Write a sequence for this structure.
């Protein structure tokens, strides 16, 4: 007789690949026996229904509900087999008589039909009996009644949009009546734990604290559960500091074991990354340094430093075992390919920062980073703060071969890295340390900007207007200026300075030569994008800054790009396209500027290009670029028909820059036009500009709102230096 498992597999119509057999002869005999049975037209197989006793022997699983009474064969397979037997045998009988008609479904022998009906009836009865037994077993389990009711409540609550608020409130109250005091009995079952998660979702803060207190002492066990771990995450995210402080300490002294667990490692890292306090993070990370840091820090962990450098400074004799313990755990997780943990990246940074330069510690660590052939480790590192710093240090400490291999791992992810708050820093570090600029330009620029010319424009536009990605394009032209690295990116400067210190002993090329060569290689991509999409670039502040910096720093033919920029200034600068009525109401009737002259960043960019260089605050003079742009003549041909509108409008300083430019050939013509419209200039110089009016209204509104609380009267706010300053300067020049 075949075993129960073999019967089940055979009846389901599938066979495990490479399933073991006793010998080939037995297999062949079985096959022959089956064929001979199939050709027999007279034999019928009577299926004996499985008794309740046999069902109990096979186990209490409800999976048997899906099988027939013959030990596992579905009912439709039983019928189809009998039908095939009949059709084949009956066809054989009639084939000898040429005048005989083949049998139909209605002409089946009555005895065979009765036998099939009896078999079907007995199978149904056995199936019903099995189902009844399964229900009885479920009903006999603890909390069966409560569990059934909570499931019905959960089924209703999960359909949020279909349940009125009043009914939901009643259901939540009933749910808490059932689960209060019994929560531990619900959380370790895959179906009932969902009920507790729903209860947390609709619970108030006190109810959440009640659930957290009931589960106290079990959080480590829950973290190791495939389903209950999500319950911990829900409690932490929707709870407060009191709930956090109940849960997190239960993981202390078990970090080294839990970080290796396939389920608990994820919730441990989520806690470390998302909700743990600074001190709790330090306690969790310290356990990576060895068993003693887990055993002796409970209760007084705040007395111990979190930084490995401070620990090693206090106890230098422990350096070897600490570094060995840390590296072993790091290597273990890398070998298991669980390389996405922020906790792992922080531990790797601690090791790298304390490894002795020029020793095997650094060399071995870089080899570990390169050892992942698929590059998952390096890719994951690039997207966390500590991980990106680890990669930057590896690029700085590595030799030419190491840098080439590390850079190769990022071939498919450079676009994602450029827009990432941490990933873009890896690209900047590669600019700073790789001496082979040809390798850098071929490895980074085509992948970052795309090899397809059409997609290049799209990708550059996306990079230009992203606060992180724009640094990967403009860093080679602007360097570490405040305009490119605002306060939010100030930490990038610190890492790059750290790279500079290491680069002094590991790189040979002069930094300025390296930067110049990379800027030259990138220039054709950026100049082409300005030529093609200048009208789109000038509509944003970042776009105008991009245009200015590229035109000042790029190398190559800039004439086409300058002409495209000048064309964006054509037309009436005073024209403003009003918003639709509904949008005006939503925006307090503020119109949108539809010309570059009506945007402060647009006028500033044109003024800088006309001046031909950056303004140096120290010398209070323009530092012209070489070769000169000569943009003044190109721009004048596009604005000369509306020169007075420019001189009296928001971008009047563009006209001031024209007459102050040393290489502008039409200066006398401009001065003559301005003298002929002196009255308009005088009026503009005295009247309040639209920008000043908006600023004044905003200030008055702010003062009134502040005075409303004190009860004091407010005075009208008169703007200082009201009037168009550019127009006033032009009056002085003429």
């Amino acid at each position: 007789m075949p075993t129960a498992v073999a019967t089940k597999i055979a009846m389901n119509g599938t066979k495990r690949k490479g399933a073991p057999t006793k010998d080939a002869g037995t297999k062949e005999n079985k096959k022959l026996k089956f064929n001979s049975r199939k050709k027999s037209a007279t034999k019928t197989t009577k299926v004996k229904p499985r008794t309740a006793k046999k069902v109990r022997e096979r186990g209490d699983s409800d999976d048997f509900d899906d099988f027939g009474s013959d030990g596992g064969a579905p009912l439709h397979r039983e019928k189809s087999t009998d039908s095939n037997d009949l059709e084949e045998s009956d066809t054989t009988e009639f084939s000898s008589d040429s005048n005989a008609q083949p049998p139909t479904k209605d002409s089946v022998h009555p005895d065979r039909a009765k036998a099939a009906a009896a078999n079907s009836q007995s199978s149904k009865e056995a199936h019903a009996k099995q189902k009844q037994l399964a229900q009885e077993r479920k009903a006999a389990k603890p909390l069966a009644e409560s569990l059934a009711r909570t499931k019905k409540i959960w089924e209703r609550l999960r359909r949020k949009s279909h349940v009125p608020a009043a009914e939901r409130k009643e259901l939540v109250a009933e749910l808490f009546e059932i689960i209060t005091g019994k929560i531990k009995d619900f959380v370790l079952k895959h179906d009932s734990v969902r009920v507790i998660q729903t209860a947390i979702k609709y619970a108030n803060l006190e109810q959440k604290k009640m659930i957290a207190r009931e589960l106290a002492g079990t959080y480590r066990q829950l973290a190791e559960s495939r389903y209950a771990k999500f319950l911990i995450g829900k409690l932490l995210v929707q709870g407060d500091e009191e709930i956090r402080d109940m849960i997190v300490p239960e993981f202390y002294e078990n970090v080294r074991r839990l970080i290796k667990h396939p389920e608990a490692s994820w919730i441990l890292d989520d806690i470390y990354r998302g909700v743990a306090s600074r001190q709790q993070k330090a306690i969790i990370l310290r356990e990576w340094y060895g068993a003693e840091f887990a055993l002796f820090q409970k209760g007084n962990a705040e007395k111990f430093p979190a930084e490995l450098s401070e620990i090693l400074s206090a106890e230098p004799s422990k350096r070897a075992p600490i570094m060995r313990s840390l590296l072993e755990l790091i290597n273990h997780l890398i070998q298991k390919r669980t390389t996405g943990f922020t906790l792992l990246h922080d531990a790797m940074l601690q090791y790298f920062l304390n490894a002795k330069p020029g020793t095997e510690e650094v060399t071995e660590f870089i080899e570990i980073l390169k050892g992942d052939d698929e590059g998952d480790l390096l890719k994951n590192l690039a997207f966390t703060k500590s991980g990106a710093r680890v990669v930057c240090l590896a690029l700085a400490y590595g030799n030419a071969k190491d840098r080439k291999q590390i850079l190769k791992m990022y071939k498919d992810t450079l676009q994602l890295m450029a827009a990432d708050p941490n990933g873009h820093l890896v690209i900047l570090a590669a600019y700073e340390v790789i001496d082979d600029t040809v390798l850098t330009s071929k490895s980074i620029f085509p992948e970052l900007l795309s090899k397809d010319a059409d997609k290049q424009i799209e990708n550059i536009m996306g990079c230009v207007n992203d606060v992180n990605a724009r640094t990967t394009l403009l860093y080679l032209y602007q360097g570490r200026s405040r305009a490119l690295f605002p306060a939010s990116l100030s930490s990038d400067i610190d890492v790059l300075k750290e790279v500079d210190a290491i680069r002094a002993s590991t790189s040979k090329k002069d930094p300025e030569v390296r930067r110049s060569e990379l800027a030259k290689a990138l220039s054709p991509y950026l100049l082409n994008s300005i030529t093609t999409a200048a009208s789109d670039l000038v509509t944003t502040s970042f776009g105008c800054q991009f245009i200015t910096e590229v035109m000042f720093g790029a190398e190559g033919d800039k004439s086409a790009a300058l002409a495209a920029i000048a064309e964006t200034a054509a037309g009436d600068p005073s024209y403003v396209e009003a918003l639709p009525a509904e949008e005006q109401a939503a925006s307090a009737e503020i119109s949108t500027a539809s010309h570059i002259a009506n945007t402060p960043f647009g006028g500033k960019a044109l003024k800088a290009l006309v001046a031909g260089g950056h303004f140096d605050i120290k010398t209070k003079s323009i530092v012209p670029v070489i070769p000169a742009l000569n943009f003044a003549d190109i721009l004048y041909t596009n604005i000369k028909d509306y020169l007075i509108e420019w001189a009296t409008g928001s971008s009047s300083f563009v006209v001031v820059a024209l007459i102050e430019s040393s290489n502008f050939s039409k200066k006398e013509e401009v001065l003559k036009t301005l003298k002929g419209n002196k009255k308009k200039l005088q009026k503009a110089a005295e009247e309040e500009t639209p920008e000043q009016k908006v600023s004044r209204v905003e200030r008055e509104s702010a003062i009134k709102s502040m005075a409303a609380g004190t009860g004091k009267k407010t005075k009208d706010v008169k703007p200082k230096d009201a009037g168009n300053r550019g127009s006033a300067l032009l009056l002085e020049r003429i």
Summary: The chain is about 65% helix and 0% strand. The beta strands are 576-577, 592-593, 613-616, 621-624. The longest helix spans residues 110-140. The two ends are 113 Å apart (CA to CA).
